[in-house]
Amino acid sequence: MRINVLVARASLLILTGLALGALVVSAKTPAPAKSSAPAKSLAPALGDPERGRQAYLETCRFCHGVNPIEGGTIAPPIGGSSLALIQARVMEGGYPPGYKPKRATRNMPTFPHLKDDLPHIAAYLAQTK
Ligand code: HEC
Question: Which residues contact 61 (CB under 8 A, 6 or more apart)?
Answer without folding.
Answer: 72
